[in-house]
Amino acid sequence: MTSPTAPLPETVIASPDTAEGARYLEPTGTLKVATGALGAILTLFSLYTAQFGLLVANKQRAIVLAFCLALVFLLFPNAFRRKTGVPLLLDVLLAIGGFASSIYIVVVFDELALRQGWPTQTDFLMGVATIFFLTMAGFRVGGKILPSICLFFLAYCYFGKWIPGRFGHRGFSVTSIVRHMYLSTEGIFGLPLGVVSDYIYLFIVFGIVLTTTGVGKVFIDLALAVLGDKRGGPAKVAVVASCLFGTINGSSVANVVGTGTFTIPLMKSIGYKPYFAGATEACASCGGQIMPPIMGAAAFIMAEFLGVSYLTVALAAALPAILYYVGVLTSVHIEAVKNDLKGLPKDQLPSLTKILKEHGILLLPIPGIILALVMGFTPTMAALWAIYISLVLPLFRKKTRYDLRTFYEMLGKGAAAAQDLVVICGMIGFIIGAASLTGFGMKLAGAIVDISGGHLLPVLVLSMVASLILGMGIPTTGNYIMMALLTAPALKLMDVNPLSAHLFVFYFGIISDLTPPVALAALVAAGLARAPFWKTAVTSTKLAVAGFIIPYIFVLSPNLLIQLGNIHLVDTTIIAVTAVIGVIALAGAAQGFLLLPVRLYERAILFVAAILLISPQYVHSAVGAALLGAVLALQYLRSPAHLGRLKA
Question: Residues of 204-237 as b/e, b for ≥16 C-beta within 10 angstroms?
Answer without folding.
Answer: bbbbbbbbbbbbbbbbbbbbbbbbbbbbbbbbbb
